[in-house]
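Re: beginner question about structure tokens

> Can someone show what the tokenized structure looks like for a real chain? I only ever see the sequence side.

Sure, here's an example I had lying around. Input first:
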Amino acid sequence: MLIIGKIFVHYFVHNKEVIAMEIIRIGEKIIDCKKIISVIDKALELRTQGLSQQQVAERLGLDRPFISRLEKLGEVRRGRKIAVIAFPIKNKQELEETLKELGVEFSIVLTEKERWRFVSDKNGVELFNTIMDIIARLRTYDTVVVIGSNYRIRLTEALLDKEVVGIEIGKSPIEDDKYVDLKKIKELIKKLTLE
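And the corresponding structure tokens:
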């Protein structure tokens, strides 16, 4: 099938049509678009894992300036890296959507029920390792916003060698989900990213 310069190669598996690759012609060259997308995805995945542009280029057989141009092409914003930890939250879905819209790269937002399930679904070693992984990840951010009890905010400040901005939603222990003012969260995140 030929569609505006693109050729779709089809094959059938158990009588179901499957598109194997999308091919385009540029002059004398035949280009597999999915292969290009796959290499770009892999390059970005390796960069998010902490590899340098040079390391990614060497691993994938590309030039380092190409990796830099890819990142510039897709850059949404520059600025401080912000993480958000929030629990127990009543308007969880709305908060998650707001954080995503604002470009927050890492967040953990839990209801009270999810918070207890997070703890009870793991044995002691698994829970310890998971918490240590979260702490290690949080240490890679410039600012960590903690939306929770007064105790959780103080504990996070003690554990992280980073700027911690606390939004207290109650005194510890909080035993039910709390509503978070999304307008205030938006204002705070925007202010933090501009600093």
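Each token stands for a local structural state, so reading them left to right follows the chain. The chain is about 45% helix and 25% strand.
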